[in-house]
Automatic annotation (TrEMBL):
Pfam families documented for this protein: SnoaL_2
Protein name from the UniProt record: Nuclear transport factor 2 family protein
InterPro entries found in the cross-reference section: NTF2-like_dom_sf (IPR032710), SnoaL-like (IPR037401), Steroid_delta5-4_isomerase (IPR011944)
UniProt xrefs under NCBIfam families: SgcJ/EcaC family oxidoreductase
């Protein structure tokens, strides 16, 4: 099981991966058959699908920046608490969205599964400029 310092370093590398704008770098943070589910939606399973999910965020959000706000560690279960900012690609409206991911990590400190959460109604209101 990865130690706290390894997990902290991994979390920073995950933040860096999102800020690279490269969906493949985001996907590389996951185990080969890793998965993410966002707001109880359809699972994105495997690195190819995870890269597709990340590419969708990059398409929707210009100048996307992910900020690691906090990290909670309980063994191999981690809460990665984040904010992302940018401008919506369709409306140009500024976005400042807060959320978190709950990770189960593999022994080699990759994300085996992630449950991601953010307030979808707040996101929609920001997109609309309300």
């Amino acid at each position: 099981m990865p130690g706290h310092e390894d997990i902290r370093k991994f979390a920073v590398s995950y933040e860096d991966a999102w800020n690279s704008g490269d969906p493949e770098r985001v996907a590389a943070c996951y185990a080969p058959e890793g998965s993410i589910v966002i707001n109880r939606g359809t699972p994105w399973q495997g690195r190819a699908k995870i890269a597709e999910m990340a590419a969708g965020f990059y398409a929707d959000v210009n100048r996307m920046r992910v900020i690691l706000d906090d990290l909670r560690i309980a063994g191999d279960h981690v809460a990665f608490i984040w904010t992302f900012t940018g401008d919506h690609s369709g409306t140009g409206n500024a976005l400042n969205v807060r959320g978190w991911e709950e990770w189960d990590l593999s022994g080699d400190c990759l994300i085996q599964s992630s449950l991601g959460w953010f307030d979808a109604e707040d996101y929609a209101a920001q997109v609309a400029g309300r």
